[in-house]
Amino acid sequence: MANHTLLLVESNPIELKMMAAALRAEGWRVQVASNGEQALTTLRTSRPEMVLSALKLPGMSGFELAGQIKQNAQTSAILVVGTSASAADESSAREVGCDGFLEKPIDVRQIGDRLQACLKGQAPSPPATASPTPGPAPAGTSSEANQPVIPVPELVSQALRGRRVALIGFAEKEAELICAALERVEALPRLLQAWEQAGSEIVASCRLILVHARSESASRFAARVPLAPDQALVLVGTREALLTLDHEVQARAAEFLIDGWQPEEAILRLSMALTRNILPVEKQAVPRRRGSPLDGAEILIVDDDIDVRTLIRASLTRNGVECRVAANGAEALEMLERRQPTAMILDVNMPVMDGFETLVRVRERGLDLPVLMLTARQQEKDVLLGFDLGANDYVVKPFNPPELIARLKRLI
Fold first, then answer.
1. How far, CA to CA in Å, does 279 sit from each of 22, 270, 375?
2. pTM exceeding 0.90
3. Tens digit of pLDDT for each residue in 240-263?
4. Cβ-contact 360, 17 below 8 angstroms
5. 154-280: which CATH number, 2.40.37.20, 1.10.287.3510, 1.10.3370.10, 3.40.50.2300?
6. Which among 15, 147, 208, 300 could bridge 341 via Cys, Cβ 3.0 to 4.6 Å?
């Protein structure tokens, strides 16, 4: 976890929100200012380790701001990193005292690592080239590679902190991993070894009930376990096992956790299961339409990969859904100007305008539109950032169409 303090100065509200969310998702404590004057006001009462400032600002420029910070004995020790779309501005930034420089556009998924390099006294590293998507971890486990610990947003931790969680039907290694993830957010896991225990008072005292659907007995238990209004059932297993469960069993689950999960993914899914079960009474009323929730729905599919768009469109059309497609965020925003769909499926990695910026612009317009993100496996940073920016759910590529449809049904 970074746990560093930073003042972010940026006049573009979209860039400001995206960078702040990305850094907070990595554990930075971020204050924001939209111009140089606001930044200096903040620095009168706060001493962050770093100021990350656009050099082109309304009123006082970033150059002037950097100069004032470095000339003031009380703030001169603060690291100042300037940002600009013009690489030619770097030399001028250095002259006024900037300790580092980042050229725009800045990939928000790499910004934390690049600023960490500044704190260590190194030049900010250049943007990394895209690396191949890692393969899936073994079923039921997280990756064995030495992955950095990704900070969990405080709202997610709050949802699980102090909650009792029943674990039923888990193998020893799986139980060890899920317990470690839960203990990280101060939840209270209870591992039940036998199905007889599963019917005990222990389960009744738990807010979350996790059942691994690897056996017939697991499915039978998930179908009959009594659920109080404030309890949530989460089904865990392979995609194939979860999708072959009876529809009645699937419908009882507040969430699904697919084998191969990472700790951050497990925490997010369990948090979502709890928050979905805490709806106001008026929102727990009869569904808006009889039959499938997708009947007559209109979905906007936003992905630059034509094969992915075609696969999703074909699957949704077979389920009575009207589809519109866009190849990038800019196209999607133009379509949203004309008509708002029931929900949007949004890929993260796209040219022209990526999924993060698209999401920010959608929320800036005040659109109450359910958004399902498409992310690559083992990209938990993307998922956390997406939720910070306003996503409602996500599916990991490569996905099975039935899984995508199941999540869309829950979303709308």
1. 28, 16, 27
2. no
3. 888 888 888 888 888 888 888 888
4. yes
5. 3.40.50.2300
6. 300
